[in-house]
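The methods section describes the discrete structure representation at length, but only in general terms. The central task, working out the structure tokens from the amino acid sequence alone, is never made concrete. Nothing conveys this as quickly as seeing an actual entry. For illustration, here is how one protein appears when written out as sequence plus structure tokens:
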Amino acid sequence: MVLVLNLRPSPPHKSSAWKDNSGIVYHYGQKAQKIWWRAPSIGIYGSGTINGDRVTTVIYYEQTQKFVCQVSGTVKDIDSYGLAQRIEWEDWNAFKR
């Protein structure tokens, strides 16, 4: 995304793009354990936290700012720099860089 998902957060701020199973692009930002993100093509955004290999986020509709849901996931692949490469969400979706 957002999300660089650096499991060893030291930079002041990072951002990146991720894709889900359907090819939808999510733009993520991260500062320490806090994350935020947007998926403009489907009109949603959210924010959340990273705790170890667990990621939790709350999702909202952009147009109405109404709550959609909360979802958690697990980081499954980490590169040698400590950056997540794949997240598997509880709703069976997965994000990859």
Observations:
- The mean pLDDT is 86.
